[in-house]
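Lecture notes, unit on protein representations.

Consider one protein chain, 193 amino acids long.
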Amino acid sequence: MNITEFFQQSSGKWFSQRTSHHLAFKQTEGGKSELKIELLDQDNPEVIKLCEQYEIDPALALCGARVTWDGTMEWDEEKHAGSTVLVPIVDPDVPNEGKLLREMGYAEKAPVAGRYVMGNDDALVLITEYESMYSEERLWFASPNLRLRTSVLKRFGGFSMASFCSEIRMGTSTPPQTETQVAQSTEQSQASS
């Protein structure tokens, strides 16, 4: 599996349950959220805009994804909602690795570029280094409708957190097609008739 296929398989609505371990405080916290992951074509205006923001040629973008979340954590009862756009840029020398551009980081509310590695086991590893912290996430599919995620967040100076999430697809198991895939299947059906 490559990163574009991983994004395609991730498209849709998900129910996420998270358990976070705050290592410094020796406490555990649960949380729930709904995720919506929408696949974006390479020529989508949001993908082009994000590439230009990082001064990267938009032609190098493999695809994009808009991720929207809405959830709560046990400790604060506040709504945690937001959205971001992700764009993978492949490393020409190492096809299963590259940069991952983010419109907004999860740990810090600022644009941030991280790295991704697609493993031989079809797991996606995302590594992001912020000014004051380091984040590493590993995502994989246990089945087409069950995605698992582990993450470690290390704040420089001592504070660390580890999380485990199970994400269950809500609704159909077939990820939605991109505009390009719809156009291609329409062309194929017209050509065969």
